[in-house]
Amino acid sequence: MLYEKHCSNCHQQDGQGLRRLYPPLAKSDFLKNNFNPFICTMKYGTSGSIVVNGVEFNKLMPGVPSLTELELAELATYITNSWGEQGGIVTIEQVSQALSGCAPQ
Amino acid sequence: MAFYRPAIICICAVGILMAAGCAQKRQLPIYGSHTFNGKDTVYHTIAPFQFTDQDGAAVTNATFKDKIYVTDFFFTSCRTICPIMKTQMLRVYEATKNMPDVLILSHTIDPEYDTVALLHDYANRLGVESARWHFVTGVRDSIYKIAQTSYFTAALQDKTEPDGFIHSGAFMLIDKKSRIRGKYDGTKKEDVNRLIGDIKILRQE
Question: Strands (DSSP E) along chain B, which ranges?
């Protein structure tokens, strides 16, 4: 499973993250409000400070450049429809559009 | 049937006594080579070391004098087994919070990147006290050497690995005499449960 392979070591099986080290993905206001950065971060990584559900996080997250648009769509769909959430299906078109705004860093 | 009842009760009582006796006498093994100096058995112990923790304080063998400690090797930018190890080590930390004689020592194997300031931030974000859980950095070769020759665990740089290092996910249990008393897979919840149980056994020695 993609989530277990690429995400759950840090963000945990239940999407709760780990203390103030790794941010939660479950019920994350940051993911809801930042769809394009969410997709770009999975592929290309991110660094710097972010605030998730009122808590500040600041740790480098390495991306997984090998993820395809289909895999990114599957991961985004899984993350936004798990842990009691129903965000609906994320399409390849949405992923493609998000990626067009971010370049490999 | 009444005739047999005392016999059954007797057997049960013996069984309970034996089980209780075994539980009390259970001893943890002492790892490493044993030699005999003519008077006493000499066990493998952790070699002298000096590292620096997240507060910039020196951490040496003296830090762990008369303490039991659990130790591991990791690095903060690792995304493979280290986050799982830290999740499990947090369980050890929580399980031992009322045990003043039990400490945790986590060594970075990437000391160039994991500076004192970075380890300070890491520990702070994990929400743990530096008096109970030391995150240490130091001279790279000293860290690798102590991993391999004192703790019998693996820590090496290898550019071909996904994150650049080969290292073991082991948690080692060290007693108050600096001897290795247990080795556990720090990525497996069940094995960490065993470690938490063994700490209690060790405290009774």
Answer: 34-36, 41-43, 50-52, 58-60, 68-74, 102-108, 133-136, 155-157, 165-167, 170-174, 180-185
